[in-house]
Design goal:
23 strands; 8 helices; Purple Acid Phosphatase, chain A, domain 2; 364 residues; alpha+beta
Length: 364
């Protein structure tokens, strides 16, 4: 791959810098977290990659950012889910790229799907990728120009905004775009950064051990802030907005938004005992007793047993996996406000201040 585009930026003093990553085409969550943060024309807004794909409104999300960009205070990093433009360069050889069509039809969403529908093209009938590419280039020139200009990192005097991570032992420009977009678990990579590095890409819940927390992780020793709250990707995900008070401050705060109803705890509940978090990448289970609502399962790697919502189980090629799940029992007090993710015959799966778990009392 060619050298990545790197943007240098000198923020004006006295302005908040709001940083959001991994929106994944969830426009309602994007608008919601902007409201929570009180976003205005006085703020600078950084989108730290992956604003497209996975969700249902990729084209609308792209156009929303294009409209914000006209105000001049938007700064967008290209994430791995936004890196579509290379496929659409006029000189690109389309041979072998039909898998893109299969991906589009499998998901029935995403930027290509949305563009097809907006252009009056039936995405289910598209067979010639080269012809489709030419048609979409003609139909959406402004959108492709916007995507083509996105940098893979934005650097200021005190901060680096990059979607997934980097290797501080090498010059930033010596990385490939792929390296900047796809570093897994950057906080666990063992590196420390010479300036504050803000990343998304890896949902922060995956850093948890026995509990599930979607709030940003701030590691002051490594100078890394990881902010992907699992919006769209996780059943209990949220969209985080990191607040940098001004260009040379590390007095961070954040806002979060999710679509779940908020209710009030009526009964005190002590924290439960032993718990476990089954997560993506290590989610294979054996079903011991299948029930209509809950199934007793054993996590294959650890042998840990828990009851899992049956609708969270899925079987492929005779192997059973599950959505991310936990049996953690939250400590709660009367008056606590919780976000209700699942309401079951046994109790509620809720989120309190970013931490997910079970509550077995009453809710107002």
């Amino acid at each position: 791959m060619s050298a990545p585009r790197i943007a240098r930026w000198s923020p004006e003093p006295g302005r908040r810098i709001l940083v959001i990553s991994d929106i994944h085409a969830n426009l309602p969550c994007f608008e919601g977290v902007l409201r929570e943060a009180g976003f205005s024309e006085r703020d600078e807004l950084v989108i730290d990659g992956d604003f497209l794909e996975k969700g249902k409104e990729s084209l609308r999300m792209l156009r929303r950012l294009m409209a914000l960009n006209e105000c001049g205070r938007l700064h967008v990093v290209c994430g791995n889910c936004d890196d579509w433009y290379d496929i659409y360069r006029p000189e690109w050889d389309c041979a072998g790229d039909e898998h893109v069509l299969h991906y589009m039809r499998w998901r029935k969403s995403g930027l290509l799907w949305d563009m097809c529908l907006a252009a009056g093209i039936d995405p289910e009938r598209a067979e010639d990728f080269g012809a489709l590419k030419r048609e979409l280039l003609r139909a959406f020139p402004a959108e492709w120009d916007f995507l083509a200009g996105l940098p893979y990192a934005i650097e200021t005097e005190n901060f680096l905004f990059v979607h997934a991570g980097w290797d501080p032992a090498r010059p930033l420009a010596a990385h490939t775009a792929e390296e900047l977009c796809r570093v897994p678990a950057f906080l666990d990579s063992g590196v420390s950064c010479p300036k504050w590095t803000v990343v998304g890409h890896w949902p922060v819940v995956l850093y948890g051990k026995d509990t599930v927390c979607a709030n940003p992780v701030i590691d002051r020793d490594k100078r890394i802030v990881s902010i992907d709250g699992g919006c769209v990707l996780k059943d209990d995900g949220q969209l985080n907005c990191l607040v940098i008070p001004e260009r040379d401050s590390d007095d961070f705060s954040y806002f979060a938004y999710d679509p779940f109803p908020v209710r009030t705890v009526l009964d005190a509940q002590a924290e439960g005992g032993r718990s476990y978090y089954i997560r993506w990448g290590d989610s294979r289970v054996r079903v011991l007793a299948r029930g209509e609502e809950f199934s007793r399962c054993r996590h294959l790697r650890t042998g840990y047993e828990m009851d899992i919502l049956t609708k969270y189980l899925f079987t492929d090629a005779a192997e059973t996996d599950c959505n991310d799940c936990t049996d953690y029992v939250l400590p709660l007090r009367p008056g606590d406000r919780v976000h209700v993710i699942e309401e079951t015959s046994r109790g509620y799966f809720v989120k309190h201040e970013g931490l997910s778990g079970w509550y077995y009392g009453r809710l107002a």
